[in-house]
Amino acid sequence: MDVRIQKRNGTLKVVADGHAIDPLSFKSFRPTERNISDFSRAGVRLLCIFPSDINSYLGVPYSLFGPSWVGENQIDFAPIDRQIDLFMRAAPDGLFALMIQVDTRDWWLKQHPDCANSFFCLSQAAAYEPWRRDAAAYLQAVLRHTEEHYGGRFYGYFLMGGQTTEWFSGSDYAASHPVKEAAWRRYTGDPQAVIPDEATRDATHHGVFRDPVKDAKALRYWRFHHELVADTLLWFAAKAQEVLAHKKPLGVYFGYLLELSGERLLNVGHLEYEKVFFSPDIDMIASPSAYGHRKHTDASAYMVTLDSLSLHDKLYYLEFDHITHLSPTHVGTMMIPGGHAKFQSEQETIDVMRRDFMLCLTKGAALWWFDMFEGWFYSQGMMDEIAAMVAIARNVAACPLRSVSEVAVFSGGESIYYLDKRADIHSDLLDRQRDGLARMGAPYDWYTMGDLDHPDLPHSQYKLYIFLDAFCLSESEKAAIERHVRQAGKAVLWAYAPDYVQADGFSLAAMAETVGMGLEKLEESEQTIATPWGDYGFRKKIQPLFAVADGQATALGTYAASGRPGLAFKKQGQGLSIYSGMGPLPGPVLRELARLAGVHLYNEGSDPVFATSGLIGVYADRDGDLSLRLPAGSPETWCDLFSGACVQAKNGFLSMTLRRGEARLYSCPGRSVSPCPKTH
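RE: above sequence
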């Protein structure tokens, strides 16, 4: 069977022998006849199989089927076969993705005591050639076995490694190791080189910034650390492709730029994610739903620069591993990730399932429901809901979908190298910013900086560009911004310190030139910018801080202590430049900036809006009445795909009364989309 990830009607699908399949999937560490068959009967055709040999970080085995990599050049395929047989019985029309873990095993580590445990200390093991050799041999053997015996039932594979199998370098960032030291010497070309000590690695000589000159050793080390992780992942991917020959999609968990705190992000090794996202050997990227944005009252969010993946024809899987009302919060004494956000009722669970489904459907992303330790979805109401979502996705697939976003957000890994990981500026500007973006009343697309000049990026539709962490801009990036943004007369929002980091140090003048207005450095410690639409700011006091010092700029917000302008805009030719000295900007503030840029606002409240061509969704932030402003030229009749009810627009608005947490997903009837067959 030949399988590709291809766009059909503008949305990426799993295409098996020419037949497109909606990428809705199932995964479990504890697959059983019941949970597999429940999802299969609900219409879910894509299912994940994970025959792991090791314990999870929760202290329990990932898989109960037994080890397969059992000794040197010894593979017992029986545990893999038994699990595959279970899936084939319980999901007779299912297609499967096999997750293959390349981590070191306990027996192997006893034979190679000079190698670190790759599950816990990935970067220390990454350059150990015997591990690479033996793990690659195991990987290829499993691939050959699966393709030879079951190839007609497998649509793809996932490459698993590092802490939590998400290619995290977990416990090794602060300790040296002979294998990593040797790799560092090869990287530097200096046979005497020693990895900088922890104090040197973590030092900053310019407030929250590493100095490009004074901290050059630290910057070089951190690049080495992240390149080592990405290059190791891609080395295994190339080995997998020696067998697959690109006839089956290959996926990984990677690139959690928007999720991890500054400290974790610098440590785990994901900053060179563009290498992975842009690699021809990788077809699918997965991540859990954002852990800090998954409560019943939250807006939901993804961890990666999602729209970049679509731009590069990579299918993104959002993992729905939420703690449902049926889920435990702990395994033994260990809290399951997301345990803090457990839902209290079936209705809450269904509400959030609908919310995340709308997010995936309108972003062209895939979704898999993760019954982590079995029983999390053992409810007829929940399975009816999943069956309904499968039906909606199937019907929507017949209609062309395209982004209607007029806001484009950009972020990148390069600037993070320069930040003090302890200051957590990164989390303020990216992680926490996701909530404000979700509540500004308009959809948005999120790219990585390497996409600025991509030929398929739809610059013509964007009215507002947002650069959240552009502290270090290359000449090519600045040229692309000049061409696509400034000369095109667009509005641009700059956060904190754009273009402040230069090759030889720091430049307020370069920053002012990039922003397009006069700036000054503040001597006072500030934590809050006050605006008519709400106050905001960093969680910690930091230096340096900047204020607008330009008589031609219009102030929209001021620092609470000094009264200096911290949020302002200025006309630039036909365009608009906006500067914010802090983040994250809340939804009401972003909404006003979007209004300045001429962006169409669907909603004047804080209710998250999901929109693509012909589809509009909303997730109620409160009980009461809500109105959605439709784009010009929209039809008058719309159908709620969850309930089947049709509503008429009046004067360009869809009006409704909702309870908090209620989701509505509207389609215009002319798109031939049938409503959901079940109502809850």
